[in-house]
Amino acid sequence: MSGHSKWANIKNKKEKTDAQRGKIFTKLGREIAIAVKTGGGGDPANNARLRDVIAKAKANNMPNDTITRSIKKAAGEGGNVNYEEILYEGYGPGKVAVLLEVLSDNRNRIAAEVRHIFNKSGGNLGASGSVAWMFDRKGVIAIERAACADEDELMMAALEAGAEDFTADGDILEIITAPADFSKVSEELAGRGYPFLSAQISRLPQNTVEIREAETAQKVTAFLERLEDNDDIQEVYHNAILPENDE
């Protein structure tokens, strides 16, 4: 789940990626298809959006040949499925703000499915603009501390490449960039051999809600997992800080 960008949430997402690799690759394939169609074709050198998705795919351990096949499929005859980009926003249990990025070939179906999940979980689906203003689009690169021999060297490389911020939080080193600088920074760090735990254009909450009550934390976690399990929902962003053992 893509919540407040702290190490426990990132670690949790990594574990889910490993457990649900096929579903993640399918969703990444959709993102590649949209990037090829809307960003300027199948050449990453001329398509910044495609470059960003490729960085995200590689951070999720998507094999290079799978990435290449997805690009060719999107650019050729296999790219005739039209996915629509949709944002849904609202509040879940515990008044947690939630923003969903969706790619779907059936707007009516996904609208009904999202509404059902919110209603079943005791949340409220909001109008356009009700939650999105609480999140900032940023490039986010996470690297495991154990994989970095010299943190100062990483920080200097990131900042010199154009990163806005560098933070160390527990087991995770995190680099924040403006969306326009994400490709440049990620390519520079990848070229230096740093392995990414995650790397993508994300939406970071301006403020967070700490969920301390165990029952509410369980409800929030179950709600977020239902959203993430939906095939059409690409990303689930939220502003919850959950107890570590419930993430």
Oligomeric state as shown: single chain
How many beta strands in the DSSP annotation? 10
**Helix content range:** 40-55%
Q: Which architecture name of the largest domain does CATH use? A: 2-Layer Sandwich
Succession of helices and strands: HHHHEEHEEHEEHEEHEE
Low-confidence segments, given as residue ranges, are 1-8
> How can the largest sheet be summarized?
4 strands, antiparallel
The number of domains: 3
Mean pLDDT: 89
CATH class division of the largest domain:
Alpha Beta
In one word, what is the shape? Answer: globular
And the CATH topology of the largest domain?
Alpha-Beta Plaits
Strand order of the largest sheet: 3-1-2-9
Short recap of the structure:
By secondary structure, the protein is an alpha+beta fold.
What would you say this structure looks like, in words?
43% of the residues lie in helices and 23% in strands. It is of the alpha+beta class and 247 residues long. The chain folds into 3 domains: 7-79, Integrase, N-terminal zinc-binding domain (Arc Repressor Mutant, subunit A, Orthogonal Bundle), CATH 1.10.10.200; 85-132 and 207-246, 2-Layer Sandwich (Alpha-Beta Plaits), CATH 3.30.70.980; 134-205, YebC, transcriptional regulation domain (Alpha-Beta Plaits, 2-Layer Sandwich). It has a 4-stranded antiparallel sheet with strand order 3-1-2-9. A 4-stranded antiparallel sheet has the order 5-6-4-7, with helices on both faces. It has a two-stranded parallel ribbon with strand order 8-10. Strand 5 and strand 6 form a beta hairpin. The longest helix is centred in the first third of the chain and has 19 residues, at 21-39. It is globular, with a radius of gyration of 18 Å. The relative contact order is 0.19.
